Amino acid sequence: MSHPYMPMHRALQALLLVLVFIGAVMFSPLGAAATPPPTLDADAQQVIREMQVPGLAISIVKDGELVAAKGYGVRRIGESAAVDADTSFPIASLSKAFTAVALCMLVDEGKLRWTDPVTKHLPAFQMWDPYVTREITVRDLLIHNSGLGLGAGDLMWVPPTNFSTDELVERIRYLRPVSSFRSRYAYDNVLYVVAGQVVAAVAGKPWLQTVQERILRRVGMSATTADAAGLLAASNHATPHGTTDDDRLMPIPAMSTSNVLSAAGLNSTAADMARWMNVLLAQGQLPGPHTHGDKAERLYSAARARDLWSIWTPIPIGEPTPALSATRPEFLGYGLGFNVTEYRGRKVLTHNGTLNGSSSRLMLVPSLNLGVVVMTNQWHSDYARRALILRVVDHYLGVPETDWVSAYNDLEKSERAQARTKVAAAAARRPQQAGPALSAQAFAGTYVDAWLGEATIALEGSTWVLRFARSPGLVGDLEYWQGQTFVARWRDRMHKADAFVSFVLKPDGSVAEIRMQAVSDETDFSFDFHDLRLVPARPPSR
Which of 75, 54, 91 is nearest to 235 (CA)? Predict the structure, then answer.
């Protein structure tokens, strides 16, 4: 209705202007609100310059449209080939969402239920506790509430091992819980491997084939591959990088994930991840020509979308530093393949993906119909990816700019300094002793852990060396520390995971078991040495 005191022709002119404005916003390819942040290029270059990131790719989608898919920096240090929208990166644990969606599709088809016991589909599957074996459900595999500890069992694939997927799943029965079933959150990878086995059993095809045929092809993710072999087969791929003990950046080999594909095995590009985010934000609806009759085709139903983005396991909320106070959420939990949390009053879905030499992060803001993903070719770049994503999200929220890159860079340097100070302080406190009470020869021999298998301690030249039979990358020179404790200095220095090796003795002075733990807080949680119980070689027992 026109204003009572406005002439009719002026009211019609005003209405026409409003309609023209609405049409411009609705039918413009991007619309005013969907322009990329003006600082995007500068922010990316700041990350590369200040946070030891050789190269990165970023994609932004808004309102179903591609806002940006571009690369910065180089694929490999010392070379000129640039990262672009089609550069392939390992996305590691971002693969978990594909496993969750594959299960959503099977639930929609009535082929399984979230509440099905895992043993209904994998009769031989066992956990440590027979009660948990009987009660654990398909949904429990996805929500990190099993009672296993943080990263439990990851040494069966990090660094690369010769365990098959079937062997890895079979050995989960030897992983001791650290809490009661369904009592608290602790992130793991191995149960997502089990979830992939459930997908294969119900779909009648291996996990990768199921995901390729039923998800990747339908979404149009033609450049998305699996494992190190898939990454290296792409002519345009990012070389993984790590840092040396003195913080020099170096290329490292691409890591095989062949035995954990459903937890951490996919590689993708900024362009492909943009397509994936649009489908997720559309709650499973496929874009464009994917229709069936007069209905748009879907990967999964709206009901399953609610399952994906509901909190199933609460996560304790920590206190950030004052500089990062705006990042403290009002709620935090784990859904199905996503963290479900809040940022500046908006519900957001996030997940990280970290693999030796690579790092990625995804964030969806459903109320803004916004998705952002950042992928880097540097192992320890969690804060870099967080900073870039928050800069993008703040732009679309219209809040004052925060220099997240500097804030996270300062935090990373502070945490690294604290970790190294702690290690140095521990070294300064140890008593000055010439060596252990027993001859090192008394510690030599073969030891067995129920899930990681055999390890040997033997004299090689003048050095005592620890080797793990199933994990060729875990070879460490033993350096005396104190008491009956040594430090394993891994020959592959990119692990950043040196570990204390403590010998527990029987009253007669023989070795009862070996216990291990990481030396530094910088060690990635996947090096779960503390879960090992190495005993002198004999048949594994419970």
Answer: 75
Residues 487 and 373 in one domain: no
Count Cβ atoms within 10 A of the Cβ of residue 111 and give its class: 0-12 exposed, 13-18 middle, 19 or more buried.
middle
How does strand 535-536 pair with strand 266-268? unpaired
Q: Are 118 and 287 in contact (CB under 8 A)?
A: no
Q: Report DSSP letters for 338-390, one per residue.
A: SEEEEETTEEEEEEEEEETTEEEEEEEEGGGTEEEEEEES-TT-HHHHHHHHH
458 strand-pairing partners: 465
**Domain range for residue 304?**
32-241+253-417
> Quick one: DSSP state of residue 213?
I
pLDDT along the chain (542 residues), means of 10: 40 40 35 76 94 96 97 98 98 98 98 98 98 98 98 97 98 98 98 98 98 98 98 98 91 97 98 98 86 70 98 97 95 98 98 95 98 93 90 96 91 89 87 72 92 96 95 96 94 94 92 96 94 82 40
**Does residue 19 fall inside a structural domain?**
yes
In a domain, 475, yes or no: yes
Cα 151 from Cα 162, distance rounded (Å): 19
* Paired strand residues for 61: 66, 371
Residue where a domain stops, chosen among 382, 417, 452: 417
Residue 449 lies in a domain: yes
- 300 bridge partner residues: none
Is 321 in the same domain as 271?
Answer: yes
Same domain, 20 and 42: no
433 falls within a domain:
no
* Element spanning 133, H or E: helix 130-135
Q: pTM for the full model? A: 0.90
Is 453 strand, coil or helix? strand
Residues 47 and 387: beta-carbon distance below 8 Å: yes
Token pair for 518:
């990481």
Length in residues, the chain: 542
The two three-digit tokens of residue 350, written as one number: 């996030």
Q: Mapping DSSP to helix (H, G, I), strand (E, B) and coil, where does residue 429 land?
A: helix
